[in-house]
Amino acid sequence: MVRFENVGLRYGLGPEILRDLNFLIPAHSFQFLTGPSGAGKTSLLKLLFLSLRPTRGLVNLFGRDVSLLGKNEVADLRKRIGIVLQDFRLLDHMTTYENVSLPFRVIGRDESSYRKEVIDLLKWVGLGDRMDALPPILSGGEKQRAAIARAVISRPQLLLADEPTGNVDPTLGRRLLRLFIELNKTGTAVVIATHDITLMDQYEARRLVLHQGRLHIYE
Amino acid sequence: MSRIDDHVPLVDLGDERPQVAARARIQSPIVPRASISGRALVAVVAIMTFLASMTTGAVLLISASASEWQSDVASEITIQVRPQAGRNLDKDVAAIVDAMRTQPGIVDARPFSKQESSQLLEPWLGSGLSLDDLPVPRVIVARVSPGTALDLAALRSRILGVAPSASVDDHRAWIERMRSMSGATVAAGLGILALVIVATIISVSFATRGAMAANRPIVEVLHFVGAGDRYIADRFFRHFLLLGLEGGLIGGGAAMLLFGFSESIAGWFSGTPVGDQFAALLGTFSLRPSGYLVLAVQAVMIAAITAWASRRTLFATLDDIE
After folding, report:
1. Residues of chain B with C-beta less than 8 angstroms from the C-beta of A93
2. Is some CB atom of chain A closer than 8 A to the CB atom of B8?
3. Interchain contact, B25 vs A98, CB within 8 Å
4. What ipTM did this prediction achieve?
5. Which residue of A has its CA nearest to B30?
6. By CB atoms within 10 Å of each CB, which of A123, A155, A176, A193 scores lowest?
7. Among the residues of chain B, which ranges form H helices?
8. Burial class (CB in 10 A: 0-12, 13-18, 19+), B253
């Protein structure tokens, strides 16, 4: 599903922050991406989400060489990827329900066809009573859960999550991890970037560890 | 787009599952309607539409007044009969009037009486004037049937045959001057209109850039959820078209109200010396219904220009946002 070969990344003329990355993310796989702060986890997630292009090397996503993709093809590939960012990126003028259903809306699905699914998911992540609330009045944890729900609602083939349990209590963190595991069981490849050792210890999965710009893989 | 196992519920809520059908929800627009940058754009479009409408209205007024003057003047022929030694001026005038009345294409011929002639000369020569003491020419005004192409050369030779001291003036030189003056005024008006439209495009582009900068987070989120540039551009195009129409409606409507109000003011002053002077210079000072239609079409066009300029700006901005 994802193949990196000798990938390097630098910002402008600065030093290379990711070096010689060689790894595969198979379909249906589950992995944690970890490493110290500033190791380049978010940059790697952005490479996977096509928000950044590598300075060198080959990135192959869903069988396509990303260096050859046009803007429309990037948009088509992104529909197959869900992402949860640390800053949530919710639209402040839309309710929680509308934010979560946005992936369906942009592909032109009728509201009645996904209404129940969105409501079920919002209840599952504990936002059943916050469906009509606007993001500015949600707590940090609630925003995070809404962002996660938006990323998983369309059942992407690849899910990327950057510190998805960073703002929630351990109980809810476990519940969200279960959601990712359920999603993985239905066929989604999951990459969770986290510092949280406790979270990683709760589920036996492959670990990708970034250290000083290089990637070490523990199967 | 391929999706994984669409038929299996993503989460099983068990007893928590809602037992009643979820109600339909009113969806918020992707791009929020009310924002400070949006209001600024409406204000810019409204002001530019108002200026463009005032320019167009003024051009239409001048053009209509000029064509009114021209048609009034073009439907008349003036014959001047100068006194000549050995000829009876009154008899020459009567003979010309008779000749003119039998001329095809002439509806009416009327000689100015001595009293009317002295009234015409009164501003220059003072009152109490006796034309008998002066060699003052007599004037005959003939009205031409509208749409008739008179053979002026034949008419002139016929009149000269009746009265050798007569001269015929069809006001062609004056009409030509009028036409070139009004043409120059209309061209200047169109030039100003073109400048206003260019200024509209530039100011709208800048206002759109501001609005797009404010909406950048929305564009980024739409990219995150897989929306293509075309989808995003369509949403913003619709948004900016509505803002443009709102601005066009306000600016164009204000200009139309102003023209209507001016027409009423001109109506209140009609019959007064000031009103008569205005009427002589600017005609009725009223836009025809077709003029109001032109202003309405122009307002819609400026809204369309707003949307078009926004679309160009939008694609340039989308290229900057990865």
Report:
1. 28, 32
2. yes
3. yes
4. 0.84
5. A94
6. A123
7. 36-74, 89-101, 114-125, 152-162, 172-214, 216-224, 229-269, 273-282, 289-320
8. middle
Beta pairing, strands A214-218 & A206-211 = antiparallel
pLDDT value of position B82: 86
Task: Please report the pLDDT score of residue B303 as a whole number.
Answer: 83
- Going from the C-alpha of A53 to that of each of A7, A151, A154, A210, A212, the distances in angstroms are 10, 22, 25, 19, 20
- What is the structure's pLDDT at B284? 60
Query: Do B82 and B165 form a contact (C-beta atoms < 8 A)?
Result: yes
Q: What is the distance in angstroms between the Cα of A14 and the nearest Cα belonging to chain B?
A: 20
Rounded to whole angstroms, how far apart are CA atoms A66 and B319?
17
**For chain B, percent of residues with pLDDT exceeding 70:** 82
Predicted local distance difference test score (pLDDT) of residue B300: 87
A13-63: pLDDT as tens digits: 889 999 999 999 999 999 999 998 888 898 999 999 998 899 999 999 999
Are residues A119 and B222, on separate chains, in Cβ contact within 8 Å? no
Give pLDDT, residue B279: 66
- pLDDT for A160 equals 94
Positions of chain B with pLDDT under 70: 1-26, 34-37, 72-74, 128-132, 147, 271, 273-285, 321-322
Buried b (16+ CB within 10 A) or exposed e, B15-29: eeeeeeebeebeebe
CA A143 to chain centre: 15
- Which chain B residues contact residue A128 at CB under 8 A? 16
If residue A82 lies in a helix (H) or strand (E), which one and from where to where?
strand A81-84
pLDDT of residue B1: 41
Q: Which of B52, B54, B58 is nearest to B285 (CA)?
A: B58
Q: Which residue among A78, A93, A103 places its CB closest to the CB of B32?
A: A93
Provide φ and ψ at B68, rounded to 5°. Answer: -65, -50
CB B220 within 8 A of CB B82: no
CB A44 within 8 A of CB A210: yes
Chain A CA closest to residue B31: A93
Task: Tell me the residue type at A155.
Answer: R
Instruction: For residue A54, report the phi and psi dihedrals to the nearest 5 degrees.
Output: -70, 150
- Burial pattern B282-291, b for ≥16 Cβ within 10 A else e, equals bbbbbbeeeb
- Whether the pLDDT of residue A211 is over 50: the answer is yes
- CB-based contact A103 B22, cutoff 8 Å: no
Which structure tokens are listed for B207?
A: 């206002």
B104–chain A Cβ distance below 8 A for any pair: no
Strands B76-81 and B138-144: antiparallel
